[in-house]
Amino acid sequence: MGGPILGFCAGRIDDADGTASLPLGPSLDQEMVAPCSVNGDCEAPLGASTMSLIYVNPEGPMAVPDPEKSAPQIREVFARMSMNDSETVALIGGGHAFGKVHGACPTGPGPSPAEQPWNPWPGTCGNGTMKGKGNNTFTSGFEGPWTTNPIRWDNEYFQNLLEYDWEVHIGPGGHHQWRPVKKNSSDPSEPVANIMMLTTDVALLKDPSYLELVKLFATNQTALDIAFSHAWYKLVTRDMGPHSRCLGDHVPPPQPFQAPLPPPPAKKPDYKAVTKAITKALRTASSALPGDTVGGKPYYGALFATLAWQCASNFRQTDYTGGCNGARIRFAPQKDWPQNVAMDRVLAVLAPIKASFPSLTYADLIVLAGSTALTDAKAHKIKFCGGRSDANPNETPFPFQPPRVFGNKLVQLKDNALVMGLTLREMVAQQARLRSPSQQRRLGYSGSWTENPSLLTNDYFKVLLNNDWVNTTSAAGQLEMKAVGKEGIYMMPTDLAVKWDPASAAIAQEFATDSTAFLAAFASGWNKLMVADRFKGPAGNECA
């Protein structure tokens, strides 16, 4: 249709049965992880303001045709997709250069897929082969095109917005929409174009920033072409993750929204020598940060493992973002997340090793330090795959998100596992990863379940299952669980979620009695997460 295209990133993967969309709602899954108390005013992390709509209600907030109130809602919802004002206006107007809305049939589309799955939405207007089709089509319930030539790309949409005044009325489908009225016309019978606008279109005239962009795009087709082609590519590609997941002959260069990384150093460091240096650092006092104490001597293994976990655990298989490749835990905002307190100081403990190996990246150092600490702690089959690169410290921060926190810790446990791409079994095993008592205190807790964080064993599950626990609050105000009748033994609410959930508890019972099963599940989950962001095409992995 003549529209501007930046390129195409192929490689999307079809869901087998739709269950991956359940958290989008409306569903019980969605109510647990992203409840919407007022449909029409849904908040993040939901992408849309209204359940079952894509962005905002085109009729206006809560179906009230008020363009002034619609404009701020548009900005807030499009910001959830990381769209700025220019991208937002280009997408709305560029998208509405084509096609029309369908709502000429006042009796609607007919039974839904849930009501009549064998013949859903057959239409209720028209007869024969044209029943529910052509001019009898009903989809959104609004009716009409935005432009006079809705099968060709141009900037007429923006010109129409400015050329006419717009009057609200009830369309044939029963919804508020807007019809054009000639400005300063002395003849009320003077014909106007057969077009319409929605409340969300007229809203672009009521916001100063949006209005300036409407004026720009109405007079500058080239500016619209550039803005729309980049915004469209971002819209349909942002959930594809990094550029390395794209396939095809029309893939444009890496875009800023794809969090591009520089290539890793051409020369790989001697990872065996690095491992030896890390092993020495495990039990060498550092002025950068006091470590834990085991047998009266300093021990940093749990802190190294924690750093690697914090670096990697913001990976999201839902949109292929996050992970430790790039080592963005070094920069704001990640280094300032509450759960990452003092991780910069742990990294400072490792800084002399980084200085000794010029071709070693921070990303590889962080993961290798965690893996080395676990191997030292008697973990089995912990693997390491090098070749990560470091993000530029001057890059614009990307909107990566930490693992989500919920009041219901069972929901949190299962949601975090799902988003990270771990099975419940693997996630339960990760709950027993090395836990630093000193880091727990820095996080505001009274301590840990053990004062010996130098061994990865199934003792965690024995302590969890064989004790009764009482809610208490630390001196810093953190909710924690204290073992009844015992001093200095603490768990976090997420730990008790393992015990409270029947499925998780059954796994914990197995691990408590079968150390081999625990260590195998732990290695499976840890190894998976540490290379989850090492993409090679849509489904491949550099470390396969």
Automatic annotation (TrEMBL):
Its cofactor is heme b. GO terms for molecular function: catalase activity; heme binding; L-ascorbate peroxidase activity; metal ion binding. It catalyses: 2 H2O2 = O2 + 2 H2O. Its EC number is 1.11.1.11. Residues 1-249 form the Plant heme peroxidase family profile domain. Keywords: Heme, Hydrogen peroxide, Iron, Metal-binding, Oxidoreductase, Peroxidase. It holds the Pfam family peroxidase. GO terms for cellular component: cytosol. SUPFAM superfamilies: Heme-dependent peroxidases. GO terms for biological process: cellular response to hydrogen peroxide; hydrogen peroxide catabolic process. Belongs to the peroxidase family. Ascorbate peroxidase subfamily. This is L-ascorbate peroxidase.
